[in-house]
């Protein structure tokens, strides 16, 4: 239950970061754009805009890596509990 809530929050964080990242992109954004953030970024110097975009890219990458790590951990936890069950049953037989 806690993991599910965390993953939901992670998904919400990722979608919010994507809207911020879209505000920094010059091309056609893949999703919604945070208009307020975009107007703030446009007011920044070009070098600062690049820094903001790089930081958002890093945060998005970190979220992706966290999501993958959690899924791997859940998978390995599920696999280890399945392997532990038969050995526990053998001890009682």
TrEMBL record:
Query: Could you tell me what this protein is called?
Result: BAG family molecular chaperone regulator 2-like protein
Span list, region Disordered:
74-93
PROSITE patterns reported for this sequence:
BAG
List all Polar residues biased stretches.
Answer: 78-93
| Cited PANTHER family | BAG FAMILY MOLECULAR CHAPERONE REGULATOR 2 (PTHR12334:SF6)
Residue ranges of domain BAG in the record:
1-71
Q: Which GO terms describe its molecular function?
A: adenyl-nucleotide exchange factor activity; protein-folding chaperone binding
List, alphabetically, the SMART domains matched.
Answer: BAG (SM00264)
Supply the InterPro entries for this chain: BAG2, BAG_domain
The lineage is:
Eukaryota, Metazoa, Chordata, Craniata, Vertebrata
